[in-house]
UniProtKB/TrEMBL annotation:
Similarity comment: family membership: Belongs to the DNA2/NAM7 helicase family.
Gene3D superfamilies listed in its UniProt record: P-loop containing nucleotide triphosphate hydrolases
Tree of life domain: Eukaryota
Alphabetical UniProt keywords: ATP-binding, Helicase, Hydrolase, Nucleotide-binding
Domain DNA2/NAM7 helicase-like C-terminal: 305-508
Residue ranges of domain DNA2/NAM7 helicase helicase in the record: 31-298
Molecular function via GO: 5'-3' DNA helicase activity; ATP binding; hydrolase activity
Protein name: Putative Regulator of nonsense transcripts 1 like protein
Pfam families: AAA_11 (PF13086), AAA_12 (PF13087)
Length: 549
């Protein structure tokens, strides 16, 4: 949780001053806010990809912020981007959805929302005046609970005031006859879609009416509503590539702080997209041991652009904070990566062992009782697709085995929430092959398993109860390596996504023999690439050894 200490303390002091001066109600609140508005922070939450933005944004929605007396509340967060790329978990704060909810109001709904906001405003002023009276009777020496009541009631009043201002923006549009006809048509279409979906046993796409309402409105009104939402948002979440949007350039105030997640994947030039927004401070969060920026240009690589600013500052000895406590994975999962890549400094929080275990974990196979399990599929074969690879046999093995386990465990657990499963492929074409195999499963089996299929690059920053790593490759490269499995960074990402267990699937005759020969090779080699390969191959060997115990 987060609390805005500086702004809240200044607001509290200003509100107390207004009360002591004899002001009360709306006048005191508005004057205090006018005096402290410039101090109210606005955070830009950004990153190189949609997942690097949606993961922390989703956690903010779940964990929430704290108010002045440390009670949780939902902050004003707004997600800018493209609908198709935004995670389902944060669609509720997607700018066009929130704007569409306003633009799709019928006159009756508009009047109801207005009455609700007015009631909230009056109630907040009443609570403020009660707290102000206590401060006055205490001769201007407010107790901490009095200050908290002043701030929280003032904040509630301002939220109601903002809501009323937004409603005023769309008042004429909501009451226009053409708008009412369009709203009625959307309602009929939505009811028809719901009936069709119910007959077919399918889910109804959520929030489609908000999007339709947004796109049906005039462009000028769309922009005005989104701008109003942005001006009042405490947190604006968007990718680095979207930081140049005109809506951000026209904000009424500058960003107090930019938080860049997965900064180890961000090039120095990509970060420049933040600078025109007048950001006062920038916080880079990332892991230089994991995936680096993707730079395809040879000239750019020669110029050092594949080295992130985070890694560059780290090399220069710039002050940094190392987060050594991990809250995701079972201690046995991170033990070896910790020794290999982090000098053994990673510590597992006690809460990891205390969290409830999903019902799926009780499956008779006992596979989730192990940190690592290795599945050898010697009969599978890789096949080329362009410059990449896929392996149909591996995909079928993963899906058929996964489906059987998931369905059995889901049935045995009395339809408890399914285990979160992430299948990570080292090769992009294999993602498509696995998805097609999943599509062949019966609907009830698919429903029993909450499965995501991602490339290792797309999985960074994500997590799941069970991670299944599809290695795909069954033949060594001409140089004797194992392709992407030679990448310590990629293997580190894949192996540290799982909360309960990690399964490694592949042809061990290829992987295992290469691991053993590499791990016994001379440690005096000066080649950084061979050193990296030995390290990453040792991780896979470690999985094999743990699986056998």
């Amino acid at each position: 949780m987060v609390t805005y200490d500086g702004h809240m303390k200044a607001l509290s002091s200003s509100l107390v001053s207004q009360v002591i001066s004899g002001n009360s109600g709306q006048a005191a609140i508005l004057q205090a806010y006018a005096a402290t508005r410039a101090m109210k922070p606005q955070i830009l939450l950004t990153g190189p990809s949609n997942s690097s933005v949606d993961e922390p944004a989703g956690r903010i929605l779940k964990e929430r912020f704290m108010d002045f007396d440390l009670h949780p509340y939902n902050p004003g967060i707004l997600r800018l981007g493209v609908e198709a790329s935004v995670d389902q978990g944060v669609l509720e704060v997607f700018a066009e959805f929130k704007a569409g909810a306003l633009l799709g109001l019928t006159p009756e709904q508009w009047a109801e929302c207005k009455a609700s906001a007015e009631r909230a405003s009056h109630q907040a002023v009443s609570r403020f005046d009660v707290a102000a009276d206590r401060v006055t009777r205490n001769r201007g020496r407010p107790r901490s609970e009095d200050k908290a009541d002043l701030v929280n009631s003032a904040e509630a009043f301002m939220r109601a005031k903002v809501k009323l201002a937004r409603l005023q923006l769309v008042r004429d549009y909501a009451h226009a006859p053409a708008t009412q006809r369009a709203a009625a048509e959307r309602e009929r279409a939505a009811d028809a879609a719901a009936a069709t979906a119910a007959t077919a046993g399918a889910a109804v796409p959520e929030r489609s009416r908000q999007m339709e309402a947004f796109h049906a409105a005039p462009r000028e009104l769309q922009e005005a509503v989104v701008k109003a939402l942005l001006d009042e948002a405490e947190v604006v979440a968007t990718t680095l590539g979207s930081c140049g949007r005109s809506e951000l350039a026209d904000l009424a105030r500058e960003f107090t702080l930019a938080i860049v997640d997965e900064a180890g994947q961000v090039t120095k030039t990509a970060l420049m997209q933040v600078l025109p927004l007048g950001v006062m401070r920038m916080l880079l969060i990332g892991d230089t041991k994991q995936l680096a920026p993707v730079v395809k240009s040879k000239a750019a690589r020669a110029a050092g652009l594949e080295v992130s600013l985070l890694e560059h500052l780290e090399a220069l000895g710039y002050p940094e904070v190392r987060l050594s406590v991990q809250y995701r994975s079972h201690a046995d999962i991170v033990a070896y990566p910790s020794r290999l890549c982090y000098d053994g400094r990673l510590v597992t929080a006690p809460s990891v062992d205390e969290r409830p275990v999903p019902a799926f974990a009780g499956h008779p196979s006992g596979l989730l009782a192990k940190a690592y399990s290795v599945f050898d599929i010697p009969s599978s074969h890789q096949a080329p697709r362009g410059k990449s690879l896929y392996n149909t046999g591996e995909a079928r093995f993963i899906v058929e085995g996964l489906a059987a386990s998931a369905a059995a465990a889901h049935s045995a657990s009395g339809n408890a929430a399914p285990l979160e499963i992430m299948i990570i492929s080292m090769y992009k074409p294999q993602v498509g092959v696995i998805l097609r195999e999943l599509d062949k499963l019966p609907a009830e089996t698919r429903a029993a398993a909450n499965v995501r299929v991602l490339t290792v690059d797309a999985s960074q920053g994500k997590q799941a109860d069970l991670v299944i790593i599809a290695t795909t490759r069954t033949e060594a490269t001409r140089a004797g390596g194992v392709g992407f499995l030679d990448s310590e960074r990629r293997l580190l990402v894949a192996l540290t996504r799982g909360r309960l267990a990690v399964w490694v699937v592949g042809r061990m005759a290829t992987l295992g023999r290469d691991q053993l020969s590499s791990s016994s090779s001379s440690s005096s080699s000066s080649s950084s690439s061979s050193s990296s390969r030995r390290a990453s191959q040792c991780i896979v060997l470690h999985c094999m050894r743990l699986s056998a115990t």
